[in-house]
Amino acid sequence: MPAARLRALLAAAPGPAAAVGALHGGTRTVLCSGGALDSTRFETGSLSKTFAALLLAELVARGEVSYADRADRYLPFRIPGPPMTLLHLATHTSGLPRLPPGLIRSAVRSGWFSNPYARFTESDLLTALARTRPRHRPGTRVHYSNFGGALLGGVLARAAGGTGSDYPALLAERITGPLALADTTCDPGLPAATGHWHGRPRPPLRMPGLAPAGAVRSSARDLLRVLEALLYPETAPGRFLRTALTEVQRPRLIIPRTGSRLCLVWNLRPRPDGPLLHHSGGTMGFTAFAGFLPHSGTGLVALTATAPTLLAPFVQAAYTTLCALPVPGRP
């Protein structure tokens, strides 16, 4: 039955290439189209933030940072106003706007329809932060922020002794290397599927100043490995990473008027038979989804080489497919 549902999801995938995969009952299944393989890299967009969250939890487990640390503890200047903590950045409660001031102007100069973020650097991110005033007191409202996601990764790299530009290397050292994620990287120069926007091929996305928020490329097989580690943290190498895999799944707040919870970046939907955690992402050439049900050992990933369309029907189809997968051992 999971294979049949995956085939239906793959058939519904827009774009010239796609890969979908599931963990179910101890079995891993991956189906691909358009010449893609289970190892083909796709841009994952905001799914990148789940890696930053795992890196945060890993540094906390080591005692290198605390969730309550002020973000500016690791920056060259103080952020005015009430403390903005690492936990605020990881739960979209920092008060920062969705995008850094100046990013759109930089994107237009870079070429909005070619590579809009290519000229926006870590230095630009810090310049934008210095002149930004939070829209609300940190910790009081949920407001999705790519700005905050990018800042989180840069701060973690600095806390580990580097600069914001060292984030990809730190991610490889602490997360993707230990989990044996051979296809997962922030490097836009490595072989990958070609993204499409309105049927037209796109160049690899370059975003040096926003890498933690959206630059991760990954494959169906690697993302299933991540979900497997989240489902079975005890199997991961190293006690700090095992702790981190559990910590990112712990609910941190309730989203008003929805009943949903927010963990470290991951969204959590309560269900009668146990919670469902999920996240999605999109770039100007790709759409990505990952979700899992800890109570049943079930997870699903869906990747396609085309940009999200209005209302993100492919993401919705992936979410529905995950919900419809039967609990192993039940009829």
TrEMBL record:
Signal peptide stretch: 1-19
Domain Beta-lactamase-related: from-to ranges: 8-309
GO molecular function terms noted in the UniProt entry: hydrolase activity
Domain of life: Bacteria
Keyword Hydrolase applies: yes
PANTHER family referenced in this protein's UniProt entry, alphabetically: D-ALANYL-D-ALANINE CARBOXYPEPTIDASE (PTHR46825:SF7), D-ALANYL-D-ALANINE-CARBOXYPEPTIDASE/ENDOPEPTIDASE AMPH (PTHR46825)
Name this polypeptide is given: Class A beta-lactamase-related serine hydrolase
Organism classification: Bacteria, Bacillati, Actinomycetota, Actinomycetes, Kitasatosporales
